[in-house]
Design brief:
homodimer; 8-stranded mixed sheet; 5-stranded mixed sheet
Amino acid sequence: MASPDRPQQPDARRTAAAAAAAAGEDQQLEAATQGGPPALLPPTERFAARTAGMTASEIRALFAVASRPEVVSLAGGMPNLAALPLQSLAAEVADLVGTDGTAALQYGSAQGVPQLREQICDVMREEGIEGDPNDVVVTVGSQMALDLLTRIFVDPDDVVLAEGPSYVGALGSFAAYQARVVHVAMDEHGLVPDLLHEALESLARQGTTPKFLYTIPNFHNPAGATLAVQRRPQILELCRRYGVMVIEDNPYGLLGFSGEAYPALRSYDPDVIYLGSFSKTFASGLRVGWALVPPLVRDRLVLAAESATLCPPTFTQMMVSRYLSHHDWRSQVKTFSENYRERRDAMLTALETYLPEGCSWNVPDGGFFVWLTVPEGVDTKAMLPRAVTARVAYASGTGFYADGFGSRQLRLSFCFPTPERITEGVRRLAAVLEAELDVVRTFGTAARSELPRGPQTPSPDTT
Amino acid sequence: MASPDRPQQPDARRTAAAAAAAAGEDQQLEAATQGGPPALLPPTERFAARTAGMTASEIRALFAVASRPEVVSLAGGMPNLAALPLQSLAAEVADLVGTDGTAALQYGSAQGVPQLREQICDVMREEGIEGDPNDVVVTVGSQMALDLLTRIFVDPDDVVLAEGPSYVGALGSFAAYQARVVHVAMDEHGLVPDLLHEALESLARQGTTPKFLYTIPNFHNPAGATLAVQRRPQILELCRRYGVMVIEDNPYGLLGFSGEAYPALRSYDPDVIYLGSFSKTFASGLRVGWALVPPLVRDRLVLAAESATLCPPTFTQMMVSRYLSHHDWRSQVKTFSENYRERRDAMLTALETYLPEGCSWNVPDGGFFVWLTVPEGVDTKAMLPRAVTARVAYASGTGFYADGFGSRQLRLSFCFPTPERITEGVRRLAAVLEAELDVVRTFGTAARSELPRGPQTPSPDTT
């Protein structure tokens, strides 16, 4: 039903532009940068400076290939949703539309649905947090909260501290705002206070105060380690002394295999900025996460959220709110945890059974991930295409560092595949590793690893 | 179930910080900027420079007061969802969860659900656009697309062209990335090509090339005007000549009262960046919008989207996709339009019946808004509290300008209240205006308007 007075003959310029578009990016670039008919499309140098830091994550590039059914993907972080009570959820969401549809389908506030913000405070209480619903900002996954906090705090070249390795999505947001990431190493008990102290001190000597420490204390992504409870006040004390904010990202906290929750950093100090999510404890496809922030930060965060999306989807927020009200979400989280524990055990057994000497890995007591260090001479990024050819996928370690480290590490996810698939995947990975080691041995270029084989937690910074 | 080895006694610092938090923002600021116990919370000067431009929009400040039931709100832009077939939608969404729940509740791609991207191309065809699903990026409302396009194109102090007045949400994103907005005036036929030419020429003389022109060609928010079809190729030609990209924002395009769709700017040139949304044609609370962009822009936009939210909610995308597949969405859009036309007519009749001399307004042929110019001497922002006291709310004009203009304008929305409420609201507004004019007349400070009273389209830049 296009208007009749629309030009019947596309003009020459339109044809040219259409041809350029059809011809694809390179030709367009040419058309835009060189002569020829003027085009609306800008030459690439007209992109904002910040786009220089935006590069496709290795993980993302990986998802395409790894999603073939014959490939066992130990790469993704997808929760196992088969454990959800879909039929009762179907009835719940139908009732939401039928009885409350005009509210659920309408715009809402930029800060989020008030009732959900109260329920979020109940969820956080599980980890010792006393929060005020007025200080909760609901976001489109906690990724959005992290991105917006970076937006309101980070100027180009500001320093951000993060564990080494760190969450790839966080590194993406830090890069998008041109932050300089300084990694602090972990050991089997998580972030090492002495190393944090060293980093803070050496930055202070350069006259640099980091904008914040970004940390995942529980069941770390990708390292699998958990911050020892006695280290938690020590880390906060160091950050206070050096005037560095703390952003605590805790999507896995309730998915511990001991059934015990660790006290959140936020439970020790109300100035800690806390990020939570329903992606792992309920459903990732609803994209409901949140930030609990001090009032001083809240107002700016809400303004940033408003310009980012106007408001988070009312519908998915009300779905989560009804789920929390009408379902036994605590026992659902327990079901998820038992489910993941079983898969972790299958992975650990397979690693011990199949992996060659010189490999070492940690034993996570919650979450989704095992962090594996391979023998010297093996490059996990270079090995990845051969692994996918052998029908197993993983996330290579360099994607989790801003500084190119991690070539001897890789992340294995046990959250999504069945125990049988996990076992088969690790068997395939072991064969690929053996082949790589044959090459290393043949050309004798690399020294063998000093690490004894077997389950232990290497420092992710093991070289 | 907090861990037992959590410190039983909160330490002094925690108490101090808690007290500071309880004491509120000012005290926190003090604690953070002056001596006293070190706190994690930063002094405000540690916020990013870009936060200086983030201020609460007048519209947002307004929603709180205007949401009282006794107040007739002519301020908001909420679609009238009562017209939706809620019972069949309830069955649809229940089936989505019951039969496809593990996909609908799971993470998806950052670019959006493939089937929905194909259906979006069908929707755009209604306005003469031939798009490729591979060039569609689904976002959390088109607000997110606009925010991310600003992120990838705008460096601080870059110039962005926008109509005067312009959409308040766009001005918010431009401010968040420190763009300089240059307004170009409209008349009753929308953006004026000669004035755009003048603006481009004077910027060129300063050696400035704007990054893009942001324009809402159809049923403009807030001005209600529609860009004349013969002006469309003229505007594109000017932008090509000066090397300025065009971002076309078209949330209302299918909501015309003539039943006729206008050809999108994108239908003349595939390099135009097009923004669309289901917020007005289906349901705003699902927050499903999109951008159609050239491949050169697409890859960066997808990377930016990934760092912003990882992916848009799979669930709401699949809801929209099923709605488009299984419901007669075209006749639903027609129902919405007839509904809004009836409300527009009620508003126009009330304006003619009640408004005092010296007021003038436009006659929108689609969309949600009437733009009203009041007599000289009346300040619409200053009048707003008195209007709300008189139980009617509107959006004052200055919120729609980056340069403080608009004190004699205001936006009236006819989308949400019933025709009866609209009539009553305009009656109340007229009484408030009469009272303001009494003051003006008594103190005789301001000259009377030169404009004849009645329906006509004043240039929003009428002084």
